[in-house]
Amino acid sequence: MKKFFLVIFLTASIFLAFGSGKQAETGPFAWSMGLQNTKTNTLVPFSAPVQSYDGEQFRILIKPDKDSFFYVIAQSPDGNDVVVLYNGPIKSGETWYSQVIELTPPGGSESLYIIASRGEQTSLSRLIASANANGKAGSMADGKADASLVQKRAIINEVLSLRSEVSQFKEQAETPVLIGGVARSTQDAAEATQYSGLEVYVKTISIEH
After folding, report:
1. Which end of the chain has the least Cβ crowding within 10 Å, N or C?
2. What are the backbone angles phi and psi of residue 148, rounded to the nearest 5°?
3. H or E element, residue 128
4. What number is the average pLDDT over the span 83-108?
5. Which residues fall within 8 angstroms of residue 48, CB to CB, at 6 or more apart?
6. Tens digit of each residue's pLDDT (9 = 90 or more) over 153-197
């Protein structure tokens, strides 16, 4: 398998509980997201492409206000390598931390897709499960699944299709909020971005290095 341009440190994803984790409700919801530079221990703006360099490390923080389903998917600059960092539920009030992502040569523009949904996106989940089934030594979450290029592109195409569908709906203005807690040198609280007003979101973070 071709080496992916993001080195994923294989530590378990971390959750910090801040709420009771009630059952999922229907209707719009609010959720917060931050991109943390783990070397400087700060959250960095991501509304525009993030300018970075080889060796820099990041991780994603997510916190929903209701039980919700999330997908976090990374794509290499040439588009041929795809790693599913997470696909599953996050409970109300919990803060989820991704694995540490390190930028490695060759350079280019890495894409991180974050899909937030009131419930599971079954088509996307099926594509991920199919790609994982090809893994001889692991899953796409640890970079070891020997998924075909066709399967990887199918996952990205489904993400882009979702993004196109939801782009026609108007969400509320983004607002700054505090996110985080004491976990592996994460700041006690840091300013992140909150989204609200829709049932499904597809956010893209571009990191150029």
Report:
1. N
2. -75, 160
3. helix 122-133
4. 91
5. none
6. 999 999 999 999 887 766 555 555 455 543 344 444 456 788 787
